[in-house]
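Predict the 3D structure for this chain.
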Amino acid sequence: MTGSTVAGVRGEAPLPPVAFATESVLAWQRVVSSSFVPLVVDDLSDGRFAGTIRGRVIDGVFFSRLRVSPHEVHRTPALIDASERLFYKIMLLVDGRGELVQDARSATLVPGSVTVYDTARPYDLRFPDHVDAVVIMFPRDLIDPSPDHVRAITAISLGPEERLTRLVTPLLTELSSDFGALEGPVAARVVRTAVDLISALLSTAALAHTAEGDHEHLSLMLRIRQYITDNLGDADLNPDSIARAVYISTRHLHALFHEQGTTVSAWIREQRIDAIRRELADPLHANRSIADIATSWGYPDASHFSRTFRHQVGLSPSAFRRAARSDARRGEPRPAQGEATG
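Done. Predicted structure below.
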């Protein structure tokens, strides 16, 4: 098996939803490996295996609902080496019980609990009973906590007694059970809301489970990202102005983003283009010109914007908008970062 097929190039045409049922553990291994990332599945059902999966990817985020017989799942170093892209996965257990092991920690999974795991490192999942679970998989750069901060909370059960868990779980359950909310022009807004809630949940958990020094580091990074998000429309937004606003040196700012494998300018560009993609696809902005939308997100130079958009998305702004409108008329999701196969 090769790398995950969930996330592709931005601007690709959407693929059909995943809908699969089988009584073969080998067939189940194939479909979860193609829908998520390469995995090994071991049957614990005494020869009476059965599994079903329904899923849909919008904007690179895979929402899925799985109902499976007792089994184990293993993400091995060899499979990680074969993966083209790496993701975080959130699991919400609806029914059954299980255990997640990653980063020398073990989380007990019970109904209503949420846990996060990273496909960049080995993990094991064990379900001794029939399990009903919601699994959300998304690119690692969609959330605020850095990979180091997420590492501090992998395989930690965030139970239903936690306030944000109680807020997040109904939405994730609904989205992964009824894909009606993931259809048409509103899909991107719904997904963005879900990702923002997941990011808030993981940020809160990371703040609660990191050492004092790391706590301050994460708080600073969250404050920086919030400042950038609030000021994306300012064409003069740059590392120097951001550093001044959060009272650190520009050198320190660059170092913080370097730790996360990116640069300040690249992160600003990605956030701006993502916001512009959403507005180009949104029927509520259908009467606005592309130039007006671009300017409102910090791109007053039309030529520079067009080149940047094409490089990031793979389509010109006008071609992206036409494709989005065409899909909206057919009642399909807009062009996204990729879709699952399976």
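The chain is about 40% helix and 20% strand.
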